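From the shared-data thread, chain only:
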Amino acid sequence: MQPFDAEATRAALPLDRLIPALRAAFAAEAQVPPRHVHTIAQGGEAQGTVLIMPAWNEAFLGIKTINIFPGNGARGLPGLHATYVLYDAATGVPLALLDGNEITARRTAGAAALGADFLARQDARRLLVLGTGRVARLLPEAMRCVRPGIEEIAVWNHRPGGAEALAAQWRAAGLPARAAADLEAAVRAADIVSCATLATAPLVRGAWLAEGSHLDLIGSFTPQMKEADAASFGGGARVYVDTEEALLKAGDLLDAIAAGSFRADAVQGTLAQLCRGERAGRGSARERTVFKAVGSALEDLAAATLAWTARAAA
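Structure, as tokens:
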């Protein structure tokens, strides 16, 4: 079994290659069961949560395990650790052990860009990123893979110092980046608003979103998490999801349905339907689009397969 540490996993998954791999994976056939969720308790008290995310096709089988232990912060440890094991689907032979954190971050940013390729205006040039975490840091590079005309990048964070620091890092890498202090003004000015936060209360308001804008919601993945208010899904917006699981797990989407701003049967399509040409993406320059993602084991499988095949061919 070939080990890929964080650096090797990152190097094997350049976004300009990962995004086409994700497109091909969503267009193809694969089996993706619902994720397994288990609570780890000691002495009757919950200590952590384990997520197990399997997926397979004719060639490969992959399983991602994510351990989430919120109390780790007090121990000076990250609260999340993930590993990914790739197997030969015909024999079950283990092929590779990859860094699950790198796979998750890169496939999440890649899937957001894939959605934007169908849904953002072709002439989009102003990107706003909410968040400064592992996924948020990858979004400018990912979005510019599909919208190379992006020439203004703003970043907002609830801790302004974090936004200033990340903007400085992006500028040092040659990106036209700045920190946004006024979130409302930044949203109103953006062509693409990409949220990669762990917010539990809405950050983006539908009233702020400009005509023709694209709202990308990829941070929240539980009913308790939400990055945009109910109005963000209304007002004639065309709403898409990565998978139908989003209708069960995305707090912002569930809130919009409960508020009557959106109906579950009004979802315009999934990433698979877009990639297969079964549903249309953006129809005009003036309409507003929303992409809500909760993540899919299919994305993990596509990323791990790309890393393995690149190593095998080297």
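Residues 108-296 form a domain with the Rossmann fold fold (CATH 3.40.50.720).
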